[in-house]
Amino acid sequence: MRQLVLLGGGYGNMRVLLRLLPNQLPDDVTITMIDRTPYHCLKTEYYALASGTISDQEVRVGFPEHERLSIRYGTVSNIDTTNQQVRLEDGSSVSYDDLIVGLGCEDKYHNVPGADEYTHSIQSIYQARATYEKLSNLPSGSIVGIVGAGLSGIELASELRESRSDLIIKLFDRGERILPAFPVRLSSYVQKWFDANNVDIVSNSNITKVEPNMLFNHEETIPVDVCVWTAGIQPVEVVRNIPCETDSSKRLVLSPHHNLPDDEHVYIVGDCASLPFAPSAQLAEEQAEQIVKVLMMRWNNEELPAEMPKIKLKGFMGSLGKKQGFAYLADRTITGRIARLLKSGVLWMYKYHNG
């Protein structure tokens, strides 16, 4: 039997399972998935979990069941591509014939002193739970600093505002305006929402140091009771340790078929892959679609095309609390209640197809 091993139960590998199971998996292939948790986590909703506006159960989806799918629970400590083995922290190992690495990312602190030690995170479900506990126990009038005004920072700040109207929230943005890569109309809408809801946007910020209850923005010191870091990501350490060419963000450079250039049996999906897009759940799913096609062709000894079709993303959607949102779809800006309903609908459909 040929052994396909999936590392991580994130969006990419869930799409792989959705396409192969129950009827497309060849009779001579078995699948082993390795993950730290016994369920798929909806990472795009961690901001709401950390803010306390949804329960833990709402960000969990069960893994599919199949007679040739086995789930191993554990933390990957090493990927040995030479001997085609994955080693776990408990000392055990799993051999593979084909491997799809989808272990996700962790915070990137940009060498800012104290950032890794004195800030909280929403990059994993464990970290989002810990952040929720810290934020929910704050007394009224406490100051929360959120470093990084990308999509995660924006959604966290807006959701926290709805959850805790008694907190002072400061969102630190490196740019002159929110979401500068998108139309001014979209940025203006998000800015107006924050202005109307008393969230302080600190533009042109540069956090140079973090201390307990203190942020250093340029030469200014800003007291905070809690700081949450949403200012960049990088692949997890075990992936960064794979001997392979990487880009400036430490993501692994791949062949046109999404495998390591010198190893056709190791595929990289999601946040760890060097692709011409910002990492996202949508990107991981689209990449997984192509990986499944490549796997099927290789298993059937079919000749691969020189290039795979270019990945086309539909756009992105973000929420501003439970009632408002923003989206950029097909080069069109959508704001307000409709955008929020669209995002809720996409999430419902995802749960329906994967739950």
From TrEMBL:
Oxidoreductase in keyword set: yes
Cofactor(s) annotated in UniProt: FAD
Keywords: FAD, Flavoprotein, Oxidoreductase
Signal peptide stretch: none
E.C. number(s) listed in UniProt: 1.6.5.-
GO molecular function: oxidoreductase activity
Gene3D superfamilies, sorted: 3.50.50.100
FAD/NAD(P)-binding domain mapped to chain residues: 3-281
Family annotation (InterPro entries): FAD/NAD-bd_sf, FAD/NAD-binding_dom, NADH-Q_oxidoreductase
PANTHER family recorded: 64 KDA MITOCHONDRIAL NADH DEHYDROGENASE (EUROFUNG), APOPTOSIS-INDUCING FACTOR 1
Family the entry assigns: Belongs to the NADH dehydrogenase family.
Annotated protein name in UniProt: NAD(P)/FAD-dependent oxidoreductase
